[in-house]
């Protein structure tokens, strides 16, 4: 029910609509909404236009009622955000990080960052999403043998942070958070700014949301299938399939950067040769961004041919430094290699990895078991 109200935005939904969409009885909806209202999670959003009977009272989510945090642990930088229930950033910090300094140093940095973004006088955080370079075991909450950083293998990062923070912690790969951010970007579009909440509190909003195209051109829903390609200190992919992040049986899906494009090519830090990561980042290091985009596009075309996705979303600091070059370059390769005129759209991700980490942390609130 909270998830439906979040998707409806400040306009809200009526109890009858909630009953229809959830399959619950009107009596059950009334009891649940009364409890959610008492907890401060929902409020009235005005009344819908009358169709001959008594105008319906609309209900909406109260985004500021709870917050969650997201932390992006990169190889050389840490960024943390605090978001409200609509996924909007209300606090942020960023600083350098030496991932190679080892788990203990990184844990301390994460604990400090969460303390900095937390609201010292507000409600406690619901939880913290922490994302890091893979591979890692999402279910067990342990790190894998991160390329170039073997000392991290087997470190129980989630458990250690839960003990230090006293909060639920979700651990995932940075690229999976990027994929989750794609869905979060659509949801945030229905809550454009804090003024919408004020309008709803004043009873100025009426009528249910629906049918409004999202950031990717869909009406009434977020991206159906997409891949998120992250280009930063490494390369990786997040897969959004079937309405959620796809991680694979061993949390290993999305190791996009280590597919081999050039047999007997330059050695990669993973031990193979000619991986897309070493080729793409090598072009970046030479300052040849169009070539880096072309290489990324060739690897993306392989992924699109396998998965037949609707969207290819690009993110990471390398892309953010030259967005037009990468969007155009990847798009040109996909157009050249497309076997079907209805090829995927290439676009910027529209949200950062830390925001995606917070989105994952909010999942249980909205009935999504991450």
Blueprint of the fold:
Layout: H1 2-8, E1 13-14, H2 15-22, H3 26-38, E2 42-47, E3 57-61, E4 67-73, E5 77-84, E6 89-96, H4 103-117, E7 128-132, E8 136-137, E9 142-143, H5 157-165, E10 169-173, H6 174-189, H7 194-201, E11 226-231, E12 235-241, E13 244-246, H8 276-285, H9 289-307, E14 311-315, H10 317-321, H11 323-337, E15 345-348, H12 353-362
Parallel strand pairs: 4-7, 7-10, 11-14, 14-15
Antiparallel strand pairs: 1-3, 2-3, 4-5, 5-6, 8-9, 11-12, 12-13
Summarize this, please?
By secondary structure, the chain is of the alpha/beta class. It is built from 12 helices and 15 strands. Helix 6 (174-189) packs across helix 12, helix 8 packs antiparallel against helix 9 and helix 9 crosses helix 11 (323-337).
Summarize this structure as a short list of keywords or feature phrases.
single chain, 370 residues, alpha/beta, five-stranded mixed sheet, 12 helices
What this model shows, in words?
The structure is a single chain. With 370 residues, the protein is of the alpha/beta class. The chain contains twelve helices and 15 strands. It has helices spanning 2-8, 15-22, 26-38, 103-117, 157-165, 174-189, 194-201, 276-285, 289-307, 317-321, 323-337, 353-362, and strands at residues 13-14, 42-47, 57-61, 67-73, 77-84, 89-96, 128-132, 136-137, 142-143, 169-173, 226-231, 235-241, 244-246, 311-315, 345-348. The strands form four sheets. Strands 6-5-4-7-10 form a five-stranded mixed sheet. A five-stranded mixed sheet has the order 13-12-11-14-15, with helices on both faces. A hairpin with a 2-residue loop joins strand 12 (235-241) and strand 13 (244-246). The chain starts with a helix and ends in an 8-residue tail after the last helix. Residues 195-221 have low confidence and may be disordered.
């Amino acid at each position: 029910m909270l998830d439906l109200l979040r998707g409806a935005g400040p306009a809200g939904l009526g109890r009858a609509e909630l009953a229809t969409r959830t399959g619950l009885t009107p009596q059950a909806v009334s009891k649940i909404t009364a409890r959610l209202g008492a907890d401060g999670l929902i409020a009235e959003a005005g009344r819908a236009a009358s169709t001959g009977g008594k105008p319906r009272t609309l209900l909406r989510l109260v985004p500021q009622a709870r917050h969650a945090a997201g932390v992006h642990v990169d190889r050389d930088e840490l960024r943390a955000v605090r978001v409200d229930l609509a996924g909007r950033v209300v606090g942020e910090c960023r600083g350098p990080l030496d991932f190679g300094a080892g788990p203990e140093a990184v844990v301390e940095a994460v604990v400090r960052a969460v303390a900095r973004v937390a609201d010292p006088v507000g409600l406690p955080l619901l939880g913290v999403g922490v994302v890091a370079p893979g591979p890692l075991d999402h279910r067990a909450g342990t790190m894998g043998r991160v390329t170039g950083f073997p000392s991290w293998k087997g470190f129980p990062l989630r458990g250690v942070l839960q003990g230090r923070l006293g909060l639920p912690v979700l651990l995932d790969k940075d690229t999976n958070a990027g994929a989750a951010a794609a869905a979060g970007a659509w949801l945030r579009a229905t809550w454009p700014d804090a003024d919408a909440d004020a309008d709803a509190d004043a009873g100025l909003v009426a009528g249910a949301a629906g049918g409004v195209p999202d950031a990717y051109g869909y009406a009434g829903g977020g991206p159906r299938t997409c891949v998120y390609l992250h280009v930063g200190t490494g390369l990786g992919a997040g897969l959004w399939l079937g309405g959620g992040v796809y991680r694979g049986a061993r949390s290993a899906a999305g190791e996009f950067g280590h597919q081999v494009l050039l047999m007997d090519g330059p050695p990669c830090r993973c031990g193979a040769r000619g991986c897309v990561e070493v080729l793409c980042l090598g072009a970046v290091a030479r300052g040849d961004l169009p070539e880096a985009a072309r290489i990324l596009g060739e690897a993306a075309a392989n992924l699109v041919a396998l998965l037949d996705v609707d969207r290819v979303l690009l993110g990471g600091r390398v892309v953010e430094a030259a967005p037009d070059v990468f969007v155009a370059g990847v798009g040109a390769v996909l157009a050249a290699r497309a076997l079907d005129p209805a090829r995927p759209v290439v676009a910027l991700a529209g949200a950062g990895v830390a925001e995606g980490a917070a989105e994952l942390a909010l999942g249980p609130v909205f009935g999504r078991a991450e």
